[in-house]
Amino acid sequence: MIKLRRLFGLLGLLSAPLAVHAQNAPVTVQAEAGTIRDAAATPAALTFSSEAGTGFLRVVGDFVTLNGSTQSPNADNRVVSYNITFPGPGTYDLYARVRVGSGGFNDDSYYVPNSFGTRSAFETSRWVNANGLAGGGYTNATDVVSAAGTVGTNNVWKWVRMSSFGSSAYTVPAGSLTQTFEIGSRENGLDIDKFVFGASGVFFTVDNLDKGQQGSVTPPPPPFNPPGPPIATGKPKFLGGVYSNPQKVNFGKYFNQVVSENGGKWGSVEGTRNVMNWADLDSSYLRAKRQNIPFRMHVLIWGNQQPSWIENLPPAEQLAEIKEWYAAVAQRYPDIAFLEVVNEPTHDAPVKQSPTDQGSGNYIEALGGKGATGWDWVITSFQLARQYFPNTPLMLNDYSVENTTAGAQQYLNIINLLKQRNLIDVVGIQGHAFSTQPTPAASLTANLNLLASAGFPLYITELDIDGLQDEVQLAEYQRVFPLFWEHPAVKGVTLWGYRPGHWRTAQGAYLAYENGAERSALKWLRDYVQRTDISTITTGNLAATTFCVGSPVSVPFTVEGAVTANRTFTAQLSDAAGSFTAPTAIGSVTASAAGSYTIAATIPATATAGTLYRIRVVSTSPSVFGNANSTNLTLKALPTATLSGTTAICAGSSATLSVALTGTAPWSVTYTDGTTPVTVTGITASPYTFSVSPASTSTYALTAVSDGSCTGTALSGQAVVTVNPLPTPSLAVTPANDVYTGGVPTTLYLGYGPQSVTLTATGGTSYSWSPAAGLSNAAIANPVFTATQPGVYRYVVTVTNGFGCSATQEVTLTVLDVRCSNNANSDKVLVCQNGKVICVSVNAVPAHLKKAGNGLGSCTPEASSNVASAMGDALGQSFDTYPNPFTDRSVIRFRSAATAPVQLQVYNQLGQLVATLYQGVAEAGRDYETTLEGRSLTEGVYTCRLVSNGKVETKRLVLVK
């Protein structure tokens, strides 16, 4: 405050002004001397009382709301009139001695007129709400009643200078020294003792006013008209101001961003349902347009200064009205730089706190209430804002979130809920003196850093710094303002008033006097902002919102302001939750001047998949944080492929390989087959299996996998398919004895010679014979076949080697029944002798077989064949060979009596199949001819066997070389 002793030292310089003011002694008016317009009205709103010899006017009726407005008395029994005669013409300031009741700020306002004269109790334009008396005033006798004062004690008499609470000066013209002065009551609990009209430009102490004495003329700061331009002109950050009638003076010469103080609050615009008063808000908006500066809309949703008519509507109807409010603002103001969607969510939600609470809106449930998140009503408010303001940056705003870690963290939690849903773009921090003044600079910085970790630009939205003494205010400005202005994430600062009429006028938060003279803090502020080099970084929008880890990304950004040579700008990737508390550097670029640049960055291959990533650009030396990109980014993990499957196969077979895939179908997989790349596309399920048939041992390795957007190259697994050789089996037929039969080992004669043979297979480690019938053991290499019944017996042996690979070999055994004795005690067999079949004793067989042309059983095969051919001709069937014997080749010709499957095969003397000359269906009556090549065969006797129509015929072929 300004002490009287500081003023008297200058009186010698002010003799002329004193002479002027000496004729205008202060005029004292006792408050209880007035006349109540409608004193008979009941209940009474005003009474005259006395206490300890002091008479006073007491307000006993609380304010009256009319059409949602409390900006005038609104009743004649709330208006008091006084007729005052002044000693001379001139301009007078109003002082009042008041006592605020125990209700404090609920007992501390009344209405004063903006000029002399009679006016209607309902004429809002001619009444001024003098509010906030509880926070100001003077009581010490020597105190100069020059500003709002600092006495915040209730129930004490104190002097207030009414111009510090909204009142204007009053003019008394020459020739009209008697004037009508009126006041109106507003809040009960306020007592008024007396009024004093003192000549403007004269300063009065409490003692002067108590005694009705002339005050002293001090050297007020000379009137000042700032030249402009706005303080932050040419700076990359704005210095904005609040816009209202007291703050409009010289606005454009100080500030380059604007926000309406009260005009944008819903209760101010639509105090009466469906009756819109846009005047104050239009004024702010048009100021932004005229000056071409950003306009901030304050505010859509709040728990204060909301329309009273909405409080008791059903929630559905409340929501409909909220949407109408959004739509009306969006239509009227298309160029909003920042839209305050919700104000003070942690302190003043739109919920009725008590039955007498007014102005809360009471519509929290219409917006979803607290809900599962605890802040559903905030989320809904922003969702509606995105709908109605799709291209406008959306802001959350609150106070006392910078002075405690708990407050900052709670605020950050709400920010992150909105961020997860892409609903917020900027963060507002009010920055009032009651939050900053008691908080160390280090704590303020730490909490700003915490809030900046969300990646959004920060704005100080309602800065004020108290100080009734210039030196006190200056010191606090010098402590706090640079902390905000130079913070790397703060992009702008808005002062919540700078002239008297400031909402904290009583605390001395104004920066200029009514005549425009600047206080010390304002002079310092201009100099500091203009001489301080700062820069800002704006991270641009990325070309896409989905990236694969390890992929490149171009990060555009713009830097404004002072840029030192070779300054490094780094792109940072947030963590998976979108926080920049511990960001990852992903690329950088060097620049030496302001401008637009692009960083060629790379998403780390180690980044985990997620949907809430953000990227911002920062710099060091100096430290500046760019905003994060405006949309959550999705990082997709690279798909992976793991190869597994068969590792060893046998020659001629296939291996099955399996690829286990991660990512999103469909996939494409590339693998190498030896050195040849093979790509398979359109894979829709994992695992994916495929077969390979290498001719020799081969290596298969994965080289790439793609899921349509991401391609992986660091893949797991390879398969070495080893091709093992097949066994090379051989098969021998060994008779049980060496009795000569004149035939081959594969032909057994029932009644003579060996009655069994040993089938010996070689070339493997295990053996399996099929069929097993007729063999001594089907699972050994050398089973014994014993003839019991005549017929043709075909056996296949499967030979398996040590690699588990198998091959087959087959043999055909022919059993002929040559027995001819009817006497069971006499063994006789058939012998073909000289073309005739005779029955002889087995003992006589060797002698017969020694003779050429003789043989066991029927006569020679040729003769038998001729007989068979003759029979076949009769049946329409034939089978013959020529030449026979042969040296190079022999032609075999056959005809089937009926259409049926036919098999024509040739066996060697060991019973081994050496050629299949025909296998298939033969048509009835048709002649078929084929050739047996003898060049690859060894000399010897071969058996040609024809199976047709269920009958078996054989011919003996002799190969001579």
Automatic annotation (TrEMBL):
Keyword check for Signal: yes
Single GO MF descriptor: endo-1,4-beta-xylanase activity
UniProt entry tagged with the keyword Isomerase: no
Annotated Pfam families: Glyco_hydro_10 (PF00331), Ig-like_POM152 (PF24312), Por_Secre_tail (PF18962)
Coiled coil: none
UniProt keywords, alphabetically: Carbohydrate metabolism, Glycosidase, Hydrolase, Polysaccharide degradation, Signal, Xylan degradation
Transmembrane segments: none
Domain GH10 span(s) in chain numbering: 233-528
One BP annotation, GO: xylan catabolic process
SUPFAM superfamilies found in the cross-reference section: (Trans)glycosidases (SSF51445), PKD domain (SSF49299)
Signal peptide per UniProt: 1-22
Catalysed reactions, as listed in the record: Endohydrolysis of (1->4)-beta-D-xylosidic linkages in xylans
Enzyme active site: 462
Protein EC: 3.2.1.8
Enzyme class: hydrolase
Family assignment from sequence similarity: Belongs to the glycosyl hydrolase 10 (cellulase F) family.
Protein name: endo-1,4-beta-xylanase
Phylogenetic placement of the source organism: Bacteria, Pseudomonadati, Bacteroidota, Cytophagia, Cytophagales
